[in-house]
């Protein structure tokens, strides 16, 4: 935290209403923007070295899976799917020790910052030691993740995950799910423990995440959500849930109760902007309409969804209904918000065989429309004030490289299009500020070399010992 606050003069900056010139950003010692003034004079403020855009919230991450990248890309069966991948993921998770998780997460969060993500929602379901044994401190692994985020300097919404069952109807969990299993009461006590040790502030929030309707029954869901709402600082806490990610999940839910997953959730809980439905890939027409009306955020993770063969959401329908949405890196095989947005649009082009699918008459530039909506929806999912460059929001922003060959000389009407749809020779992200503190300078993070060394040693140990 800067003890006095700060200021930055931006010849071009992307505000919620669009690009503006000569914008003076000012923030206080707490890291909150107190002034966003276009058509200003520079005065004694430092000047941004390139166009300035808001930091992107990453609304869905499983940090430990970063170390799995590339390990599941060899055919084990002609019918490889999400479910066979999940088995391999469970095996990998059994080997992780607290120090491994911290090293992986620290390196990952630095990667996110360098990519232009300034906050992350960590969907954290690894709670216990191997075999389900309790740690002396039940918050051991949660605190490791929080320490990694603090070291990196990224904003954090930690979402401890409730995992009770192995499938719809209360099927007993499998042995290799033992590290995830808990109860609503255990989750509520964990959240209270975290609030005591690391209280919420401008850089951190705590929500909860019922893993999915196949892993959490109706009574467990009600106890968890009701319990959180009754806790101090829990009334507006974010609630995230995996839902309708795969067709098998939809089929199993229909076979069990006669309802589709989103339809079932809507019958069990009153959704609002505090909820994030992660994936929601396979919805029927009435589900699209109902989710949009509720204000809940749909969490899209295009790279992971493609990698796992989940399918493609009807994104034009999602946007036409006015639903809130954002992007996440999920399994973290790629840490590139530009790739997530690009693949979201390209998936629709391949499916519908048309171009510029996610544009509209009011917003004809695809990248501009997607970027603005991803920032807005992602901010809702974090439960934090990270909705862009406006007074009262966090001073989270990215300075693009004004000398980047694919950005230099572009007018504002082409700038985001060039950022998202051009492949860049290097990283077009130059400087990154989180809560007014510069955490990336000229493309470098102060801890990246040591974090990379620790990460490489961790991966080597996990794969070779």
Automatic annotation (TrEMBL):
EC nos: 3.5.3.13
Residues of the Amidohydrolase-related domain: 52-439
Listed InterPro entries: Amidohydro-rel (IPR006680), HutF (IPR010252), Metal-dep_hydrolase_composite (IPR011059), Metal_Hydrolase (IPR032466), Metallo-dep_hydrolases (IPR051607)
Superkingdom, natural source: Bacteria
Main enzyme class: hydrolase
SUPFAM superfamilies linked: Composite domain of metallo-dependent hydrolases, Metallo-dependent hydrolases
Molecular-function GO terms, alphabetical: formimidoylglutamate deiminase activity
Cofactor(s) required, per the database record: Zn(2+)
Keywords: Hydrolase, Metal-binding, Zinc
Coiled coil (UniProt feature): none
PANTHER family referenced in this protein's UniProt entry, alphabetically: AMIDOHYDROLASE-RELATED DOMAIN-CONTAINING PROTEIN, GUANINE DEAMINASE
Protein name: Formimidoylglutamate deiminase
Species per Swiss-Prot/TrEMBL record: Herbaspirillum chlorophenolicum
């Amino acid at each position: 935290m800067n003890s006095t606050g700060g200021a930055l003069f931006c010849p071009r900056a992307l505000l919620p209403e669009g690009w503006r010139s000569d914008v003076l950003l000012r923030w206080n010692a707490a890291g909150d923007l107190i002034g966003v003034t276009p058509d200003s004079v520079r005065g004694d403020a430092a000047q941004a070295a390139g166009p300035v855009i808001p930091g992107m919230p990453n609304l869905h991450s499983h940090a430990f899976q970063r170390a799995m990248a590339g390990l599941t890309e060899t055919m084990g069966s002609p019918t490889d799917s999400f479910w066979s991948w999940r088995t391999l993921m469970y095996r990998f998770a059994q080997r992780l020790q607290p120090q491994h998780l911290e090293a992986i997460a620290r390196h990952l969060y630095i990667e996110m910052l360098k990519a232009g993500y300034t906050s992350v929602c960590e969907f954290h379901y690894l709670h216990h030691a191997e075999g389900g044994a309790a740690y002396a401190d039940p918050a051991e692994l949660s605190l490791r993740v929080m320490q990694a985020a603090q070291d990196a300097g990224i904003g954090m919404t930690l979402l401890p995950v409730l995992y009770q069952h192995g499938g719809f109807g209360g099927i007993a969990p499998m042995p290799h799910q033992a590290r995830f299993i808990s109860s609503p009461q255990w989750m509520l006590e964990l959240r209270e423990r975290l609030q005591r040790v690391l209280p919420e502030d401008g850089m951190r929030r705590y929500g909860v995440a019922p893993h999915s309707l196949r892993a959490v029954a109706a009574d467990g869901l009600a106890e968890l959500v009701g319990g959180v709402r009754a806790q101090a600082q829990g009334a507006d806490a974010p609630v995230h849930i995996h839902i309708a990610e795969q067709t098998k999940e939809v089929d199993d839910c229909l076979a069990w109760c006669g309802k589709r997953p989103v339809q079932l959730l809507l019958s069990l809980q009153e959704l609002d902007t505090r909820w994030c439905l992660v994936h929601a890939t396979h919805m029927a027409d009435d589900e699209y309409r109902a989710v949009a009306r509720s204000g809940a955020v749909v969490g899209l993770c295009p790279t992971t969804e493609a990698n796992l063969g989940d399918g493609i959401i009807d994104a034009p329908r999602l946007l036409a209904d006015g639903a809130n949405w954002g992007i996440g890196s999920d399994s973290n095989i790629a840490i590139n918000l530009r790739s997530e947005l690009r693949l979201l649009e390209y998936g629709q082009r391949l499916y519908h065989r048309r171009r510029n699918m996610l544009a509209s008459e009011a917003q004809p530039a695809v990248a501009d429309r997607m970027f603005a909506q991803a920032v807005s929806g992602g901010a809702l999912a974090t439960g934090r004030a990270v909705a862009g460059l406006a007074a009262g929001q966090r001073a989270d922003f990215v300075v693009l490289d004004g000398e980047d060959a694919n950005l230099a000389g572009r007018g504002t009407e082409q700038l985001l299009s060039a950022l998202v749809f051009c492949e860049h020779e290097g990283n077009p992200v130059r400087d990154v500020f989180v809560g007014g503190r510069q955490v990336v300078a000229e493309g470098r993070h102060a801890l990246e070399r040591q974090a990379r060394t620790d990460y490489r040693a961790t991966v080597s140990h996990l794969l070779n010992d």
